[in-house]
Design brief:
The chain is mainly alpha-helical. It has ten helices and four strands, in the order βαααααβααββααα. α6 packs across α8. It is globular and about 45 Å long.
């Protein structure tokens, strides 16, 4: 049996990815979030990209500005952490180690995947089409048939085939998945 590939993520950066995903869901700009947090847009961008650590004070300000309880962010991060570290162990999946210590941007594999997702042709195409999906804060969702619905940014990190599809250009995607066979995410 082949060993699983191991990747590392920090709990703080999982929270950070949730903050960015919610900001995008709500069509808020980084400048608007920076204003809510009483900081410059450049300072918020550095936090959101993982170049500057997310402080508890910034988390509190972000949550107050977005009208979301801090406990909602923490609980959602805990559910995704459980999925990544324990529940997603299939032969073709990545094994995740979640640490409580802060990791630099180059050390956190999940943050790297999140940045790749947000710059991928698949994400940009989804944003243009405005495909409806539940909030990242509602997930993951476990279904009676054993399937799990997860936010696309997490699916990108966890599912190699989803990631490969999102890295295709629109033209490459059309060739690989003709309209009659294309699945809706």
């Amino acid at each position: 049996m082949e060993a699983l590939e191991t990747k590392t993520a920090s709990f703080t950066n999982i929270c950070l990815v949730l903050l960015r995903a919610v900001r995008i869901e709500r069509d808020q700009t980084q400048a608007q979030v920076a204003d809510m947090c009483s900081m410059t847009p450049s300072a918020w961008t550095k936090i959101e990209t993982g170049k500057t650590p997310l402080s508890f004070e910034h988390l509190l300000r972000w949550c107050a500005g977005m009208c979301i309880q801090v406990s909602t962010i923490i609980a959602t991060a805990e559910r995704y952490t459980a999925l990544m570290s324990d529940k997603w162990r299939q032969p073709d999946r990545i094994k995740w180690t979640i640490v409580s210590l802060p990791l630099d941007i180059g050390e956190d594999d999940f943050l790297t995947f999140a940045h790749q997702y947000w710059s991928s042709p698949g994400f940009k195409s989804e944003r243009r089409k405005r495909i409806f999906f539940n909030s990242v804060l509602d997930g993951p969702t476990y279904h009676l048939d054993g399937s799990i619905s997860i936010a696309p940014v997490f699916q990108f990190a966890l599912d190699p085939s989803f990631r490969a599809d999102h890295l295709l250009s629109d033209d490459e995607y059309e060739k690989a998945y003709p309209s009659s066979r294309r699945a809706i995410w």
